[in-house]
Records
---
Amino acid sequence: MLGPRVWSSVRQGLSRGLFRTVGAWASGEGKKVDIAGIYPPVTTPFTATAEVDYEKLEENLHKLGTFPFRGFVVQGSNGEFPFLTSSERLEVVSRVRQAMPKDKLLLAGSGCESTQATVEMTVSMAQVGADAAMVVTPCYYSGRMSSAALIHHYTKVADLSPIPVVLYSVPANTGLDLPVDAVVTLSQHPNIVGIKDSGGDVTRIGLIVHKTRRQDFQVLAGSAGFLLAGYAVGAVGGVCALANVLGAQVCQLERLCLTGQWEDAQKLQHRLIEPNTASVLTGPASQVTRRFGIPGLKKTMDWFGYYGGPCRAPLEELSPSQEEALRLDFTSNGWL
């Protein structure tokens, strides 16, 4: 059972959060929040003793805040959220809210394995400043995560969330795709505004866009590696780890796609594929297993003037040969 304080927050927050959605963000009566745009999934900096380094987090945000991002994703996969305590997850969101520009959206990853824990985390993240909750699929009992089970889970979370909900499908980490039929059903919920799809299957993204076209529902590509393709089939933006180091270039790709400059967009996209494959965690499982994930992303952040620093155990730093291969992916495409 949810505790009394959480239920009180839910009752008070539902009206406040949904009113804010249609009143402050949306362009018309009854419209859901517009999440279109580019979002870097913010990494969590750690000290040499594996404590969260809030000072470095704020420094990174001040630098990232100079780019025309729509907002920031906090406590996504690249934020190492499974390695943080609940209190650390909330403190990171609070610090990001305080440090980021006020006109940006803050999407906070609130997913947990149980529905009850996800509701409690979502309510708590709303209280510390999240504008929307990005909820990853529960996966520990993946064999029982049928469409019906996932629809029930997300419906309950969205019913009780004081802020809008963004679905999050990342099969490389969870071992399961949020089924298209479940996405279509959930798109009809008034408090579910879209999905971040990190699977890299552009056919699937296009199908979701097509089947939800009558709903006020938006799709974000989960990687810069297929951002152009995502825009081509109807996605409205992306949550792109590569934007942590090549923010200007990812935003430029967005502009080229939105203005129909497809030839230039294609050239830029080609130059982003190898660095993206090498340094991000999301994407098809084959990319994740053969490349460098969060340690690679953090290493490139160090190269580009941000603080990457170490990951939390059990993630290990790159070996010298891996670092050399990572650097080659950036230098060969003209970024270093």
---
Amino acid sequence: MQPQDNAGAAELEEPGLPLTDDALQGVSEEAAAAEAAGAPDRGRCWLCRSSPCCSRAEPEAKKKAPCPGLGLFYTLLSAFLFSVSSLFVKKVQDVHAVEISAFRCVFQMLVVIPCLIYRKTGFIGPKGQRIFLILRGVLGSTAMILIYYALQTMSLADGTVITFSSPVFTSIFAWIFLKEKYSPWDALFTVFTITGVILIVRPPFLFGSDTSGIEESYSVRLKGTFAAIGNAVFAALTLVILRKMGKSVDYFLSIWYYVVLGLFESVIVLFILGEWSLPYCGLDRLFLILIGLFGLGGQVYLTKALQIEKAGPVAIMRTMDVVFAFIFQIIFFNNLPTWWTVGGALCVVASNAGAAIRKWYQSSK
């Protein structure tokens, strides 16, 4: 998984706002209006007096329709790429999580700058939205740093599953700041998520001194747990800010603030910690490049998926991140997850899937 960075994710959550069903509907309506304005009588049938002819409308619609299941395939590919990026974060040796975040920001900056120049959106943004862009950048980059730290200090599966608790926090923050409805179903999904996190963390006051299946010391694991939960919280706050801004801010401008402030924040933290150092191993340098490359690829395919598929099925398919994390942990680290972790993962995935199905059902009414 990749942080709404889930992003990213959080970056999951990052590309979510500009590509909502409403936004896509508006784009298609504008395109249709422009076409009608340009050729008002083109293709008008003399028999049925419709434009285009009813006999040709259905084949044309079929021709333009995307391949069935293509959006879900893009989502699956996105989940795989995000999971591989997380795997490389786990495999990097002697490079601090904050430094990995800095390299990621530099890589994305090189991609975003040409996009902003091409789209002519500028680098500052609308005057009334700049404070939200700054908050989005700071919170989003902090979420990225926290998930990288969690992945370095916890098992790949545990860290990934805990970060999937972000939708629960999103519902709570949207209720508080955006006055969105918080239903009993949301409360039930919250309970499921909290139960899943507890099963994964296994706090001593509930489970005693049983640490079977935990390779790292409990103090290190606890730090990783707080980092993963922090990632979920900051990713949720980022999503709320993106919802607040709506479609008034270009998506690439939002990413621009994210990478610039993320690089600035990473450099300050590295200076304070004194952890800045170039990786000595050539393989680690390759991993740093691949982290940015696969993370960007995951964002691209998630964006394409949201363009041609409803958000509900995409959100459900995104839970494949957890499956890939379990598979990679077993194959590359020879670490078989405990039944506690499996149970916790099932609770969190059930919560995410339930929330997605419920919203999908409500939107289809």
---
Amino acid sequence: MGRFKNNKKSRVIVKPISKKNQEDVSHVTGDKIPKSFVFSRMKLPPSVRQLQMDLRKLMLPYTALSLKEKKRNTLRDFLNVSGPMGVTHFLMLSKTATALNLRVARTPQGPTLTFKIHQYSLASDIAQSQLRPRCPPDLFKSPPLIVLSGFGSQELHLKLATIMFQNIFPSIDINTVKLSTCQRLVLLNYNKDTKLIDFRHYSIRLQPVGVSRRIRKFVQNHQVPDLRNLQDVSDFVTKAGYGSESEGDEEAATVTLSSDLGRVNKGATKSAVKLQEIGPRMTMQLVKVEEGLCTGGIIFSEYENVDGKKENVKKKKDEEADEEEEEDSEEEEEGGEGSEEDGEDMDEDFED
């Protein structure tokens, strides 16, 4: 007897994305807030699996952090689950023997952008390389800001990449946005010479200008300072702490706050903007754009362009070789005619 297929094994196990304090519709544009799935349909090495978890954490709070996929799951399974949950984007990692790829797709009908990851660093690697890694507990309660640099080209595939990354995070209104929600920043920098995209993830931190490190720590932490080696309380206030009191006082890195932010940064005062990388970090290249969801016509392919260039060079070389052969044959024909005339003149001389 044949075995009956158990459909329960092919289901995708996922916890709900939306929480009670989350909105489904943006108050800025009136559109649905973009939500995402980050998954893979194949077995990944441990380091790539950790990269997948870092990407899920980056996409918080509008993503499924506890998404569990199985090898038997198909793309249709994820698509069926994404509809009722309002998921708008898929981020799919895949690993082959020669390359690591990241596909970013718009559900349910595409398009799909495929990026080849040349280099990557995990969030743990970034934290280990820093003297004071920073990751407060409320850092991932709000979505990150998105900054695109170098994408001002008129090429179609770069325009699609710009639209895709702009719509993968919720829109903001600079007039009504709360400063407390601007905690993270995602930066994508495109190099037109190398065609590589630098992907960086930062945390945003504000420091009041003109306030020493000692005072900031005292106000933020409410800890009793150590005054044993000081003669007077004024020494604690006037003495510079670690670094200098003018740390981060450059005009290019300062902003004037419109409202209070925390215990130290007050409205109508200048604060220095600090960016600290929290990872993950990637260097990737856009290699293919498809019309549908991992299917359909190919709008752009980096490999076809390279092959086309090689074919054009080969055609030019063949044409040049054909032209040289034609020139050589013409010269041989002219040379043959001249030899026949010389032979006739020689015969006339012999006859004379």
